[in-house]
């Protein structure tokens, strides 16, 4: 190949890869611009603070915001202890070459790949029809109380779904805590659990928070797992009990986009809902990215 | 010296060995309890995976145990062509709610395959080339910008991507490609591509950056240009990882629900035309579970689809993780 | 404290073999020898820090007050409170100066604020650091200089009032002035503590220690009063080493 043609091919290939990268950024920008341009003017205080009205053709999304927040709060409460302790087991407690630890890792990787709709089926089959039914029988409820879709079951389903996110980020955070700190603590006569509670977990806190934020952002946007575990089509009341159904920003988006009798009339509401949902997840993701780059930089500086 | 040591040893042995103090014993017990609790918590991940399979399969079990369900939805009815109407050739039809339920899964497989194929066709080149750009050619500042941007793209909820495909891409594509239906495999597949491009990009970029610098330096020193190095040295070295990226993206595409539910049109049509509406496995579950009677054959069928999705993605995941391990082993093994 | 016929392996690799050595009370024992000869390994065995490294196994005994420290009746946490350790690389926690020194006391169950204050001050004074940090006890320990950090680690180890203090090349990463301060400190500490110090610096061993043990390839070649080891060693290898013929 001649020098010139080599350079030409090189230039073509480099620009092709550049084009691919550009395409990804452009699509993101396109989505954002479209949603902002069509939604921004409708995100008003009334929109944020009112329930939907006129058969979903008017009003706001207040119950959906509260429902999403309550759902992810419950999910976080459930997933954080389990996820963090699992990572602690894997990184701090598991004996080297532990077969159990290897199995846990394989399970976590595969859990991360299970389709979200299957989590929905699982939530229905396990939490509602098995656990809920069992509870109803044991607690003597004549009518369905726990054995029906509700915010508790939806949040637990999401907790299982986000478990890998928390485990992976926590383990990365634990890895960033210098070994020296553990040795120093143990040499001072601290037990392993004291070392964990006083040195290791505080050191890993930023990374653990990143994991929490990522899990929340993932959980807040998932719709498929809550389709049959608790999301409600239209429900102006806020969830007040653990077995209440609830409205949800993502599900509301789905409903407005696909089941509206008059697409043109709901379009502004739809765009505004999407904008709120996007802002929420982006804000969360941004927080995670910032915490993470900051701690990574700090970790890099410490070595 | 030796004798002295022996003497001392003799002395030491006469001193009675005290028992562990109660305080120390309490402390040791507490530590054991904590370690046990933490180990128990770590069991959750395994338990979750097993319970998912068990409980999804449990609801599908009726298809194989109950006579009525077995008659209504036998394996041959699910997977072999059936005579649906008299005097017509046998066909694959998914119509579980009708006088005579027709339960062929083939239209759903075809729908899933069509959307997945379209998405992979777009997402693999874009994701892998984008990763190549980020890992090999991009100036450092740009790369550090690119990665968070892709993370943001990955963070977009799939319902929003579905919305975008439905509201914006569908109209645009219908106008430019002149398709008969607004919602079809192309729209759904392109929407899906938005969801899996970040997956492919991230995993591919990781395995590209795992290629030791010495590989590149050796190649450059031999007079290869940067793109030749990237193409002939770095890319092959990272190949298993890139394959893993594609497999992971594939698994994600098969299981993705909301985008397809919203943008595919959801008609279970058997055809090779990408412009036709399709109904995927995942979207079928999402669309039909709401109206189904718990315990009916149709209900069990939806769970059976769930079992299949679980198994497909499980196998794909295992493949992907084997390959990523292989690339790590290969690179660290030969680089040291 | 005393080791008898102590052998330690990492997996199948023997790091130290059949070491019998007494660390005498209220004296400074220096461990010298070329790098990789097992000094750190020996030191870590004395407060069972080697327990943390997977795959280690040992034979022989280590006695503290005629009690085998590997006996089932000995709790490793209690042992480490009696046998403290200072590491080569200073490793303060990313906490305040006060909290660093108070750490061992807190994990030992001390809660009383006044008592903590007294003990922290005493340890910092003991480590000759009090005057330098008394006005910024609540600032991060990571803001201290390298030498100060190492003295903080010594203060932290002293706060739990161990009987034996093990130091693994405590001054190897420091400049000469900081090193001199540490040496001076060791000199003062021996009135109260039993000290074992690993050093690769022969002058340092000669300056600070009462007794010196020379390790070579995992074995204890010779141990005796520092004076004698440096001026009149019994073994040829010791002589070659202390006179700088190898190492
Ligand atoms: N964690 C370990 N795993 C395996 N081998 C080790 C480990 N630590 C030390 N060693 C080996 O044990 C021998 C003694 O090491 P060490 O006690 O650190 O020597 P010194 O402190 O005298 O330089 C060396 O050969 C070293 O390679
Ligand atoms: Mg050493």
Which SSEs are present, and which pair or pack?
The complex is a heterotrimer of chains A (303), B (336) and C (247).
Chain A lengths: L2 H37 L5 H5 L2 E2 L4 E2 L2 H32 L5 H15 L2 H24 L11 H26 L2 H9 L4 H30 L27 H10 L4 H40 L1
Antiparallel strand pairs in A: 1-2
Chain B lengths: L1 H13 L7 H39 L1 H4 L1 H6 L2 H5 L14 E2 L6 E2 L2 H32 L2 H16 L2 H20 L7 H25 L3 H9 L4 H12 L1 H17 L2 H6 L17 H8 L8 H39 L1
Antiparallel strand pairs in B: 1-2
Helix pairs in contact in B: 2-15, 6-9, 6-12, 7-9, 8-9, 9-12, 10-11, 12-15, 14-15
Chain C lengths: L1 E9 L2 E10 L5 E5 L6 H8 L9 E9 L2 E2 L7 H7 E4 L10 H11 L5 H14 L3 H4 L12 H14 L4 E5 L7 H14 L4 E5 L3 H7 L2 E6 L2 E7 H6 L4 H7 L5
Parallel strand pairs in C: 3-8, 3-9, 6-7, 7-8
Antiparallel strand pairs in C: 1-2, 1-4, 4-5, 9-10
Helix pairs in contact in C: 3-4, 3-6, 4-6, 6-7
The complex binds adenosine-5'-diphosphate (ADP) and magnesium ion.
Structure description:
The complex is a heterotrimer of chains A (303), B (336) and C (247). By secondary structure, chain A is mostly helical. Chain A folds into two domains: 1-41; 43-302, MetI-like fold (Orthogonal Bundle), CATH 1.10.3720. Chain A contains ten helices and two strands. In chain A, strands 1-2 form a two-stranded antiparallel ribbon. In chain A, a hairpin with a 4-residue loop joins strand 1 (52-53) and strand 2 (58-59). The longest helix of chain A has 40 residues, at 263-302. Chain B has a domain at 102-335: MetI-like (MetI-like fold). With 336 residues, chain B is mostly helical. In chain B, a hairpin with a 6-residue loop joins strand 1 and strand 2 (102-103). Chain B starts with a helix and ends with a helix. In chain B, strands 1-2 form a two-stranded antiparallel ribbon. Chain B contains 15 helices and two strands. The longest helix of chain B is centred in the N-terminal third of the chain and has 39 residues, at 22-60. With 247 residues, chain C is an alpha/beta fold. Chain C is globular and about 55 Å long. The mean pLDDT of chain C is 92. Chain C has ten helices and ten strands. In chain C, strand 7, helix 7 and strand 8 form a beta-alpha-beta unit. In chain C, the strands form two sheets. Chain C has a six-stranded mixed β-sheet, with helices on both faces. Chains in contact: A-B, A-C, B-C. Chain A binds chain C through residues 95-96, 178, 180-181, 183-191, 194, 198-199, 203, and chain C through 47, 49, 52, 54-55, 77-78, 80-81, 84-85, 87, 89, 91-94, 103-104, 106-108, 153, 156-157, 160. Magnesium ion is lined by residues 39-40 of chain C.
């Amino acid at each position: 190949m001649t020098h010139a043609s080599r350079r030409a091919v090189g230039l073509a290939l480099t620009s092709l890869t550049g084009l691919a990268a550009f395409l990804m950024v452009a699509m993101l920008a396109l989505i954002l611009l479209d949603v902002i341009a069509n939604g921004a003017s409708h995100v008003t205080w009334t929109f944020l603070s009112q329930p939907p009205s006129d058969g979903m053709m008017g009003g706001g999304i207040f119950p959906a915001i509260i429902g999403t927040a309550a759902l992810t709060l419950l999910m976080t409460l459930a997933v954080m202890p389990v996820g963090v302790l699992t990572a602690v087991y894997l990184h701090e407690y598991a004996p080297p070459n532990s077969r159990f630890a290897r199995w846990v890792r394989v399970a976590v990787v595969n859990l991360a790949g299970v389709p979200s709709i299957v989590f929905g089926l699982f939530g229905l089959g396990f939490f509602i029809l098995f656990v809920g039914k069992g509870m109803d029988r044991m607690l003597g409820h004549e009518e369905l109380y726990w054995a029906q879709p509700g915010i508790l079951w939806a949040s637990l389903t999401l907790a299982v779904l986000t478990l890998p996110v928390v485990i992976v980020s926590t383990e990365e955070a634990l890895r960033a805590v210098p070994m020296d700190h553990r040795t120093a603590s143990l040499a001072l006569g601290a037990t392993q659990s004291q070392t964990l509670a006083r040195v290791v977990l505080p050191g890993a806190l930023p990374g653990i928070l990143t994991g929490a934020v990522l899990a929340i952002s993932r959980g807040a946007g998932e719709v498929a797992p809550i389709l049959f575990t608790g999301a409600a089509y239209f429900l102006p009341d806020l969830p007040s009990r653990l077995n209440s159904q609830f409205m949800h920003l993502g599900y509301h988006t789905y409903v407005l986009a696909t089941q509206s009798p008059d697409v043109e009339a709901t379009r502004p509401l739809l765009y505004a809902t999407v904008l709120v949902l996007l802002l929420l997840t982006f804000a969360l993701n941004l927080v995670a990215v910032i915490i993470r780059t900051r701690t990574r930089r700090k970790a890099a500086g410490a070595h | 010296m030796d004798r002295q040591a022996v003497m001392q040893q003799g002395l030491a042995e006469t001193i009675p060995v005290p028992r562990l103090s109660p305080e120390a014993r309490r402390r040791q017990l507490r530590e054991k309890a904590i370690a046990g609790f933490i180990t128990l918590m770590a069991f959750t991940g395994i338990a979750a995976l097993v319970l998912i399979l068990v409980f999804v399969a449990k609801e599908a079990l009726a298809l194989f145990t109950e006579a009525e369900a077995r008659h209504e939805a036998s394996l041959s009815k699910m997977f072999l062509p059936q005579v649906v109407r008299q005097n017509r050739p046998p066909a694959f039809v998914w119509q579980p709610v009708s006088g005579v339920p027709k339960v062929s899964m083939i239209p759903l497989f075809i729908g899933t395959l069509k959307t997945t194929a379209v998405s992979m066709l777009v997402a693999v080149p874009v994701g892998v080339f984008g990763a190549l750009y980020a890992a090999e050619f991009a100036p450092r500042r740009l790369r550090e910008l690119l990665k968070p941007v892709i993370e943001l793209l990955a963070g977009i909820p799939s319902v929003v991507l579905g919305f975008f495909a439905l509201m914006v891409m569908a109209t645009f594509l219908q106008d430019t490609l002149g398709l008969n239906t607004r919602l079809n495999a192309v729209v759904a597949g392109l929407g899906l591509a938005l969801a899996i491009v970040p997956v492919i990009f991230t995993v591919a970029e990781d395995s590209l950056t795992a290629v030791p610098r010495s590989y590149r330096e050796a190649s450059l020193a031999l007079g290869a240009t940067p793109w030749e190095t990237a193409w002939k040295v770095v890319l092959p070295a990272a190949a298993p990882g890139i394959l893993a990226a594609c497999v992971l993206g594939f698994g994600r595409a098969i299981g993705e629900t909301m985008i397809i539910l919203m943008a595919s049109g959801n008609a279970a049509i058997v055809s090779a035309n990408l412009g036709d509406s399709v109904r995927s496995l995942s979207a079928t579950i999402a669309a039909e579970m709401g109206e189904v009677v718990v315990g009916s054959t149709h209900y069990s069928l939806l769970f059976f689809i769930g079992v299949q999705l679980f198994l497909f993605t499980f196998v794909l995941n295992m493949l992907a993780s084997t390959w990523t391990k292989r690339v790590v082993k290969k690179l660290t093994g030969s680089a040291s | 404290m005393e080791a008898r016929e102590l052998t330690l392996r990492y997996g199948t690799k023997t790091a130290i073999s059949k070491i019998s050595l007494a660390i005498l009370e209220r004296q400074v024992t220096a461990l010298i020898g070329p790098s990789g000869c097992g000094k750190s390994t020996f030191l870590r065995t004395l407060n069972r820090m080697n327990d943390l490294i997977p795959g280690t196994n040992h034979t022989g005994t280590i006695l503290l007050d005629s009690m085998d420290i590997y006996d089932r009746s000995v709790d490793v946490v209690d042992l480490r409170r009696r046998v403290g350790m200072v590491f080569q690389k200073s490793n303060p926690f990313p906490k305040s100066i006060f909290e660093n020194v108070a750490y061992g006391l807190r994990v030992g169950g001390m809660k009383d604020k006044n008592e903590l204050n007294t003990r922290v001050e005493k340890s910092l004074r003991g480590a000759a650091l009090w005057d330098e940090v008394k006005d910024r006890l609540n600032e991060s320990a990571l803001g201290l200089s390298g030498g100060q950090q190492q003295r903080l680690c010594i203060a932290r180890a002293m706060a739990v009032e161990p009987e034996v203090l093990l130091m693994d090349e405590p001054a190897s990463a420091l400049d000469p002035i900081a090193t001199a301060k540490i040496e001076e400190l060791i000199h003062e500490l021996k009135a109260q503590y039993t000290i074992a110090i690993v050093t690769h610096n022969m002058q340092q061993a000669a300056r600070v220690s009462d007794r010196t043990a020379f390790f070579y390839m995992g074995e204890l070649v010779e141990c005796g009063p520092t004076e004698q080891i440096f001026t009149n060693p019994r073994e040829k290898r010791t002589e070659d080493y202390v006179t700088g013929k190898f190492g």
